[in-house]
């Protein structure tokens, strides 16, 4: 199976007009998604060498343009050279954080985060809308999508614990880790993880962690299938939030609505497919009869909001008949959305790369915790601990002196927004791609792409706090604007 982009491929030169009058000239393979340079043409596995800067974000005026700049950056990475290129003013990140409810979801007392995640969410949703022929939730912002679960549950910030209490930041011998015990079965893994006879509650976990080092806890926990990560992350240079493989040459441009087979669960994937549905796609939600979507045991209104009007199919995926039925659905799809570790489908003989080679029109979007590359492909992650792994809690610790969980499972909706953009852009370009979107990389990209030029988050925190005070802005509770 040879990649579509081969050595010696003909190149065209594009000029991308961006903010501040800067023109970027880049060479790209003709007619290939995405429209920016590839480093390793022989493998087609590197997504985006070009980085459009988001620097000089050191004034209120520049801060207000973060969402617009971020939107244009994503559109460029999606290969949409004909998309709007104007930078416009928007809501100041501090105002957005306070009035959206995100501030009340961070810390036991409302806490400002100096990472403009709300602006990134607004930018991602606006970029997705730019690709759509119909209005997509015109009265809803990307920020609104970050808080709608908390608005339904009425949960608030809980300091070093997630709002639901499943994820906690815990001290150990030489640092701090995040441990997320979302599934009841996770508790059964704790004795093996901590090498003890039994562990029945959080205080017992905290006591045992004090005698164990971070690296051992994280590596051992991941081998057992626990969602665990080191909270003390180092700042990294900006890199891309998505990896892709071009398996086949692009097909023709789309003139009909796509059919989506949604195999995902919980939040990120269902949000992604609900955005595609709002853009006109027919979405078929597939669940295992033995292991249905875990969101079903949560708030019914939230599950209904994410999955309303989707076709629902239940299959026994432990049987050859159920696996064949799933394969038949996939062969009729334009987009497949997968939300589990890659090995889950591979064990059934369903190989994404082989199906894309067989079906040149197919776009396959894979949402994982840390990506499809080994060994990360086997690591478990959920929205709260993925945000910690990306560096959010470390930044909050730098500026507040406290270890805090940021928002409500914030990596989930952020990743859902980015995956929707990537998948839709691939479909518009004709498909033939395997898109690897991870919770951790998406949040880490948001952090890196919008970091202060000097890396001083404390100075930004102080400036944004002064902005709130100067404008007499108070934190508001989260609100849900979409209705089930």
Shape, per Cα inertia axes: globular
Measured as a percent range, the helix fraction is 25-40%
**Total DSSP helices:** 18
Which structural class is indicated by helix and strand composition?
alpha/beta
Task: State the distance separating the first and last CA atoms.
Answer: 44 Å
Beta-strand segment tally: 12
Please trace the helix and strand order, writing H or E for each element: EEHHHHHEEHHHEEEHEHEHEHHEHHHEHH
> Which spans of ≥5 residues are poorly predicted at pLDDT below 50?
1-57
Q: Supply Rg.
A: 22 Å
Mean pLDDT over the residues: 84
Query: Biggest sheet: strands, sense, closure?
Result: 7 strands, mixed
| Strand arrangement in the largest pleated sheet | 6-12-11-10-7-8-9
- The fraction of residues in strands falls at 5-15%
Structure description:
With 484 residues, the protein is of the alpha/beta class. It has a domain at 167-234. It has helices at 60-64, 66-77, 93-100, 117-130, 142-153, 186-194, 202-209, 214-224, 268-278, 300-307, 320-331, 343-346, 352-358, 383-390, 392-400, 411-428, 439-449, 457-470, and strands spanning 11-17, 23-29, 167-172, 175-180, 227-230, 242-246, 259-262, 282-288, 311-315, 335-338, 363-368, 433-438. The strands form 3 sheets. The chain has a 7-stranded mixed beta sheet with strand order 6-12-11-10-7-8-9, with helices on both faces. The protein has a 3-stranded antiparallel beta sheet with strand order 3-4-5, with helices on both faces. A two-stranded antiparallel sheet has the order 1-2. It is globular and about 55 Å long. The relative contact order is 0.16. Mean pLDDT is 84; it is low at 1-57.
């Amino acid at each position: 199976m040879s990649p579509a982009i081969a050595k010696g491929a003909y190149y065209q030169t594009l000029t991308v007009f961006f903010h501040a009058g800067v023109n970027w000239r880049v060479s790209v393979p003709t007619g290939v998604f995405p429209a920016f340079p590839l480093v390793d043409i022989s493998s087609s596995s590197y997504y985006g060498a070009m980085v459009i800067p988001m620097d000089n974000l050191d004034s209120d005026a520049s801060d207000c343009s973060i969402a617009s700049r971020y939107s244009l950056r994503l559109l460029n990475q999606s290969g949409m050279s004909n998309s709007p290129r104007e930078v416009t003013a928007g809501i100041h990140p501090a105002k957005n954080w306070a009035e959206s409810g995100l501030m009340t979801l961070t810390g036991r007392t409302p806490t400002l985060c100096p990472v403009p995640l709300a602006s990134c969410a607004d930018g991602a949703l606006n970029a997705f809308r730019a690709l759509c022929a119909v209005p997509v939730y015109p009265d809803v912002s990307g920020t609104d999508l970050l808080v709608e679960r908390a608005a339904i549950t009425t949960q608030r910030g809980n300091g070093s614990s997630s709002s639901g209490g499943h994820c906690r930041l815990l001290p150990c011998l030489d640092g701090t880790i995040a441990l997320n015990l979302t599934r009841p079965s996770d508790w059964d893994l704790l004795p093996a993880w901590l090498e003890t006879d039994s562990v029945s509650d959080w205080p017992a976990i905290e006591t045992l962690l004090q005698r164990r080092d971070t690296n051992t806890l994280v590596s051992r926990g991941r081998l057992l299938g626990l969602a665990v990560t080191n909270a003390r992350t180092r700042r990294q240079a900006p890199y891309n939030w998505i990896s892709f493989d071009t398996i086949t040459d692009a097909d023709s441009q789309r003139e009909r609505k796509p059919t989506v087979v949604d195999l995902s669960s919980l939040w990120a994937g269902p949000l992604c497919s609900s955005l595609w549905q709002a853009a006109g796609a027919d979405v078929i939600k597939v669940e295992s009869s033995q292991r249905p979507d875990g969101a079903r045991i949560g708030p019914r209104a939230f599950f209904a909001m994410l999955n309303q009007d989707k076709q629902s199919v239940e299959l026994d995926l432990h049987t050859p008949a159920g696996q064949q039925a799933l394969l038949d659905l996939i062969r009729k799809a334009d987009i497949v959305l997968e939300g589990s570790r890659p090995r889950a489908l591979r064990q059934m003989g369903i190989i994404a790369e082989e199906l894309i080679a067989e079906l040149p029109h197919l776009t396959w979007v894979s949402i994982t915790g840390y990506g499809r590359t080994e060994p990360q492909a086997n690591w478990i992650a959920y929205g709260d601990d993925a945000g910690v792994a990306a560096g959010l809690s470390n930044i909050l610790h730098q500026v507040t002196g406290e270890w805090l969980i940021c928002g409500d499972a914030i990596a989930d909706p952020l990743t859902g927004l980015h995956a929707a953009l990537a998948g839709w852009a691939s479909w518009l370009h004709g498909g033939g791609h395997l898109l690897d979107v991870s919770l951790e990389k998406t949040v880490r990209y948001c952090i890196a792409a919008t970091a202060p030029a000097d890396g001083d988050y404390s100075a930004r925190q102080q400036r944004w706090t002064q902005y709130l005070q100067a404008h007499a802005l108070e934190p508001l509770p989260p609100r849900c604007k979409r209705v089930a």
